[in-house]
Amino acid sequence: MNVSGRSYAPINFADKLAKFADQWQPRVIAELNDYQFKIVRIEGDFLWHDHPETDEAFIVLAGTLRIDFRDGSVTLGPGEMYVVPKGVEHKPFAAKEVKMLLVEPRGTANTGQAGGERTAANDIWI
């Protein structure tokens, strides 16, 4: 720590991911202006949803992620990313566990406007 009380330690994705095992429950690891960096573990199928007010960035750290769209899909492996444009309906899917980083504005619900029982608590830091 320095005089301002800030830590100059890097954020290690593997260390953060090792602190929780539950899936579909994003955890905030950093903020940049009004954007949050969230790590998450997922497996299986999610629900169709969109984010009418914001784009959403998916960055795969481990595993293979497929993002389905109504007219196609994109598959991402480790070290790859995709930005879903605002308002585009999508559905993430992982046959086996995927660990990834999401970048989106603070307060963005993981289920967008779809809501429901899969909606995760927001602004949970790890």
From TrEMBL:
This is Cupin domain-containing protein. Residues 45-103 form the Cupin type-2 domain. PANTHER family: 16.7 KDA PROTEIN IN WHIE LOCUS. It comes from Rhizobium fredii (Sinorhizobium fredii). Pfam families: Cupin_2 (PF07883).
